[in-house]
Amino acid sequence: MVFQQGETLYLQGEDGKRYWFKFELGMVKLGGMGTIDGNRFKDLDDGDLVEIVGKKFNVFRPGVIELIESLDRGAQIITPKDASAILMECNVRAGARVIEVGAGSGGLTTALLNAVAPTGHVHTVEFREQNAEKALKNVRRVGLDQYWSYQIGDARTVQIDFDDADVITTDMPDVENALDNLVPHLRNGGRICTYAPNMNQLEAAVRGLRERGFTDIRSMEIMRRGMEVHNGGVRPSFEMLGHTGYLTFARKRSC
Questions:
Q1: What are the average pLDDT values for consecutive 10-residue runs of the chain, which has 255 residues?
Q2: Beta strands 186-196 and 165-171: pairing type?
Q3: What is the C-alpha separation between 201 and 196, in angstroms, rounded?
Protein backbone atom coordinates (compact mmCIF):
# COMPACT_ATOMS: atom_id res chain seq x y z
CA MET A 1 0.00 0.00 0.00
CA VAL A 2 1.43 3.39 -0.98
CA PHE A 3 2.36 5.81 1.77
CA GLN A 4 -0.39 8.01 3.18
CA GLN A 5 0.02 11.59 4.33
CA GLY A 6 0.69 11.82 8.06
CA GLU A 7 2.51 8.48 8.28
CA THR A 8 5.77 8.30 10.23
CA LEU A 9 8.47 6.88 7.95
CA TYR A 10 12.23 6.61 7.83
CA LEU A 11 14.92 6.64 5.18
CA GLN A 12 17.72 4.12 5.57
CA GLY A 13 21.03 4.58 3.78
CA GLU A 14 23.53 1.97 2.71
CA ASP A 15 25.33 2.48 6.02
CA GLY A 16 22.16 1.53 7.94
CA LYS A 17 21.62 4.98 9.44
CA ARG A 18 17.97 6.05 9.72
CA TYR A 19 16.44 9.46 9.05
CA TRP A 20 12.93 9.90 10.43
CA PHE A 21 10.16 12.10 9.03
CA LYS A 22 6.41 12.49 8.79
CA PHE A 23 5.20 12.18 5.21
CA GLU A 24 3.41 15.23 3.86
CA LEU A 25 3.09 16.74 0.39
CA GLY A 26 5.27 19.82 0.41
CA MET A 27 8.47 20.46 2.31
CA VAL A 28 9.15 18.03 5.14
CA LYS A 29 11.92 18.00 7.73
CA LEU A 30 14.25 15.02 7.73
CA GLY A 31 15.97 14.55 11.05
CA GLY A 32 19.71 15.03 10.43
CA MET A 33 19.31 15.83 6.70
CA GLY A 34 17.52 19.17 6.54
CA THR A 35 14.36 19.50 4.44
CA ILE A 36 13.15 17.82 1.26
CA ASP A 37 10.12 17.98 -1.02
CA GLY A 38 7.65 15.42 0.33
CA ASN A 39 6.26 14.92 -3.16
CA ARG A 40 9.33 12.76 -3.76
CA PHE A 41 7.61 10.04 -1.72
CA LYS A 42 4.21 10.26 -3.41
CA ASP A 43 3.10 6.87 -4.80
CA LEU A 44 6.05 5.11 -3.16
CA ASP A 45 5.57 1.95 -1.09
CA ASP A 46 7.38 0.19 1.74
CA GLY A 47 11.01 -0.53 0.87
CA ASP A 48 11.13 1.55 -2.33
CA LEU A 49 14.43 3.12 -3.39
CA VAL A 50 14.94 6.88 -3.67
CA GLU A 51 17.99 8.93 -4.56
CA ILE A 52 18.71 12.12 -2.62
CA VAL A 53 21.68 14.37 -3.39
CA GLY A 54 23.38 11.52 -5.18
CA LYS A 55 22.93 8.97 -2.39
CA LYS A 56 20.58 5.98 -2.40
CA PHE A 57 18.09 5.35 0.39
CA ASN A 58 15.25 2.94 1.00
CA VAL A 59 12.11 4.35 2.58
CA PHE A 60 10.36 2.17 5.16
CA ARG A 61 7.32 2.08 7.40
CA PRO A 62 8.55 1.37 10.91
CA GLY A 63 7.54 -1.67 12.89
CA VAL A 64 7.20 -1.53 16.64
CA ILE A 65 10.86 -2.42 17.24
CA GLU A 66 12.06 0.50 15.09
CA LEU A 67 9.61 2.80 16.85
CA ILE A 68 10.95 1.81 20.26
CA GLU A 69 14.57 2.16 19.13
CA SER A 70 13.84 5.66 17.81
CA LEU A 71 12.26 7.08 20.97
CA ASP A 72 13.44 10.33 22.45
CA ARG A 73 14.65 8.87 25.73
CA GLY A 74 14.73 10.29 29.20
CA ALA A 75 13.91 7.62 31.77
CA GLN A 76 15.07 4.07 31.11
CA ILE A 77 12.74 2.05 28.87
CA ILE A 78 11.66 -1.58 28.98
CA THR A 79 13.68 -3.09 26.13
CA PRO A 80 12.16 -4.83 23.08
CA LYS A 81 13.29 -8.26 24.30
CA ASP A 82 11.22 -7.83 27.46
CA ALA A 83 8.37 -5.92 25.79
CA SER A 84 7.85 -8.72 23.26
CA ALA A 85 7.53 -11.27 26.06
CA ILE A 86 5.01 -9.05 27.85
CA LEU A 87 2.84 -8.78 24.73
CA MET A 88 2.84 -12.55 24.21
CA GLU A 89 2.50 -13.69 27.82
CA CYS A 90 -0.27 -11.18 28.56
CA ASN A 91 -2.12 -11.85 25.29
CA VAL A 92 -2.14 -8.16 24.39
CA ARG A 93 -4.12 -7.84 21.16
CA ALA A 94 -6.33 -5.50 19.17
CA GLY A 95 -9.22 -4.36 21.36
CA ALA A 96 -7.50 -5.09 24.70
CA ARG A 97 -7.84 -2.68 27.62
CA VAL A 98 -4.53 -2.20 29.43
CA ILE A 99 -3.48 -0.39 32.58
CA GLU A 100 0.22 0.44 32.54
CA VAL A 101 1.97 1.57 35.72
CA GLY A 102 5.05 3.59 34.90
CA ALA A 103 5.51 5.13 31.46
CA GLY A 104 9.24 5.84 31.57
CA SER A 105 10.02 7.26 28.13
CA GLY A 106 7.19 5.33 26.50
CA GLY A 107 8.96 2.21 25.21
CA LEU A 108 6.51 -0.39 26.51
CA THR A 109 3.70 2.15 26.04
CA THR A 110 4.48 2.24 22.32
CA ALA A 111 4.51 -1.56 22.06
CA LEU A 112 1.21 -1.84 23.96
CA LEU A 113 -0.49 0.83 21.86
CA ASN A 114 0.68 -0.76 18.63
CA ALA A 115 -0.84 -4.06 19.77
CA VAL A 116 -4.23 -2.80 21.03
CA ALA A 117 -4.96 -0.41 18.14
CA PRO A 118 -7.34 0.42 16.59
CA THR A 119 -10.07 -0.74 18.98
CA GLY A 120 -8.30 -1.00 22.32
CA HIS A 121 -6.92 1.47 24.83
CA VAL A 122 -3.95 1.87 27.16
CA HIS A 123 -4.28 3.93 30.34
CA THR A 124 -1.03 4.78 32.11
CA VAL A 125 -0.53 5.74 35.74
CA GLU A 126 2.72 7.68 35.97
CA PHE A 127 4.27 9.10 39.13
CA ARG A 128 6.32 11.84 37.42
CA GLU A 129 4.81 14.49 35.17
CA GLN A 130 8.05 14.85 33.18
CA ASN A 131 7.99 11.15 32.28
CA ALA A 132 4.38 11.38 31.11
CA GLU A 133 5.19 14.43 28.98
CA LYS A 134 8.13 12.60 27.38
CA ALA A 135 5.97 9.54 26.69
CA LEU A 136 3.20 11.73 25.24
CA LYS A 137 5.68 13.36 22.89
CA ASN A 138 6.85 9.94 21.71
CA VAL A 139 3.41 8.37 21.19
CA ARG A 140 2.22 11.50 19.36
CA ARG A 141 5.21 11.32 17.06
CA VAL A 142 4.29 7.80 15.96
CA GLY A 143 0.55 8.57 15.72
CA LEU A 144 -0.69 6.30 18.52
CA ASP A 145 -1.82 8.92 21.05
CA GLN A 146 -5.51 8.52 20.16
CA TYR A 147 -5.46 5.13 21.90
CA TRP A 148 -3.72 6.42 25.04
CA SER A 149 -4.65 8.25 28.21
CA TYR A 150 -2.69 8.89 31.37
CA GLN A 151 -2.97 10.27 34.86
CA ILE A 152 -0.37 11.45 37.34
CA GLY A 153 -0.29 9.81 40.73
CA ASP A 154 1.08 7.14 43.03
CA ALA A 155 -0.23 3.74 41.90
CA ARG A 156 -0.41 2.66 45.53
CA THR A 157 -3.10 5.21 46.41
CA VAL A 158 -4.39 7.13 43.36
CA GLN A 159 -8.00 6.68 42.27
CA ILE A 160 -7.55 5.02 38.88
CA ASP A 161 -9.83 6.29 36.12
CA PHE A 162 -10.05 2.99 34.23
CA ASP A 163 -11.92 -0.25 34.93
CA ASP A 164 -12.43 -3.75 33.53
CA ALA A 165 -8.85 -4.02 32.26
CA ASP A 166 -7.72 -7.16 30.45
CA VAL A 167 -4.09 -6.57 31.40
CA ILE A 168 -2.08 -4.68 34.00
CA THR A 169 1.65 -4.07 33.52
CA THR A 170 3.79 -2.54 36.25
CA ASP A 171 7.29 -1.08 36.33
CA MET A 172 7.80 0.00 39.93
CA PRO A 173 10.06 -1.20 42.76
CA ASP A 174 7.38 -2.13 45.32
CA VAL A 175 4.38 -3.30 43.29
CA GLU A 176 3.24 -5.48 46.19
CA ASN A 177 2.20 -2.25 47.93
CA ALA A 178 0.09 -1.18 44.94
CA LEU A 179 -1.75 -4.46 44.29
CA ASP A 180 -4.72 -3.71 46.56
CA ASN A 181 -5.30 -0.51 44.60
CA LEU A 182 -4.69 -2.04 41.16
CA VAL A 183 -6.29 -5.48 41.27
CA PRO A 184 -9.95 -4.28 41.54
CA HIS A 185 -9.52 -2.68 38.10
CA LEU A 186 -8.51 -6.00 36.49
CA ARG A 187 -11.29 -8.28 35.27
CA ASN A 188 -11.48 -11.90 36.41
CA GLY A 189 -9.32 -13.94 34.06
CA GLY A 190 -7.20 -10.87 33.31
CA ARG A 191 -3.42 -10.98 33.35
CA ILE A 192 -0.78 -9.03 35.20
CA CYS A 193 2.92 -8.50 34.54
CA THR A 194 5.39 -7.07 37.03
CA TYR A 195 8.85 -5.86 36.00
CA ALA A 196 11.58 -5.53 38.61
CA PRO A 197 15.36 -5.11 38.29
CA ASN A 198 16.28 -6.78 41.59
CA MET A 199 15.66 -10.27 42.99
CA ASN A 200 14.31 -9.05 46.33
CA GLN A 201 11.72 -6.97 44.42
CA LEU A 202 10.82 -10.03 42.35
CA GLU A 203 10.31 -12.10 45.49
CA ALA A 204 8.10 -9.45 47.08
CA ALA A 205 5.98 -9.20 43.92
CA VAL A 206 5.45 -12.96 43.74
CA ARG A 207 4.55 -13.12 47.42
CA GLY A 208 2.04 -10.30 46.96
CA LEU A 209 0.38 -12.05 44.01
CA ARG A 210 0.15 -15.35 45.89
CA GLU A 211 -1.42 -13.65 48.90
CA ARG A 212 -4.13 -12.20 46.66
CA GLY A 213 -5.08 -15.50 45.09
CA PHE A 214 -3.50 -15.12 41.65
CA THR A 215 -2.81 -18.28 39.68
CA ASP A 216 -0.38 -19.34 36.93
CA ILE A 217 2.36 -17.32 38.61
CA ARG A 218 5.70 -17.65 36.85
CA SER A 219 8.84 -15.54 36.72
CA MET A 220 11.61 -15.31 34.15
CA GLU A 221 14.64 -13.44 32.93
CA ILE A 222 15.23 -13.06 29.19
CA MET A 223 18.67 -12.98 27.59
CA ARG A 224 19.41 -12.16 23.96
CA ARG A 225 22.62 -12.97 22.11
CA GLY A 226 23.20 -12.28 18.44
CA MET A 227 25.04 -14.42 15.92
CA GLU A 228 28.05 -13.35 13.85
CA VAL A 229 27.61 -14.71 10.33
CA HIS A 230 30.66 -14.55 8.03
CA ASN A 231 31.65 -16.36 4.87
CA GLY A 232 33.00 -19.71 6.03
CA GLY A 233 32.00 -19.40 9.66
CA VAL A 234 29.21 -18.64 12.12
CA ARG A 235 29.63 -18.05 15.84
CA PRO A 236 27.75 -16.47 18.74
CA SER A 237 28.50 -12.81 19.37
CA PHE A 238 30.89 -12.06 22.21
CA GLU A 239 28.42 -9.43 23.39
CA MET A 240 24.87 -10.06 24.53
CA LEU A 241 21.96 -8.14 25.99
CA GLY A 242 21.82 -9.79 29.38
CA HIS A 243 20.06 -8.76 32.57
CA THR A 244 17.60 -5.90 32.30
CA GLY A 245 14.83 -6.99 34.65
CA TYR A 246 12.83 -9.88 36.06
CA LEU A 247 9.37 -10.49 34.66
CA THR A 248 6.55 -12.09 36.63
CA PHE A 249 3.26 -13.08 35.02
CA ALA A 250 0.06 -14.18 36.72
CA ARG A 251 -3.67 -14.46 36.13
CA LYS A 252 -6.55 -13.21 38.26
CA ARG A 253 -9.19 -15.69 39.36
CA SER A 254 -12.47 -15.23 41.14
CA CYS A 255 -12.05 -15.82 44.88
A1: 88 90 87 83 92 90 87 73 95 98 91 96 96 90 92 97 96 96 98 96 98 97 92 90 91 88
A2: parallel
A3: 6
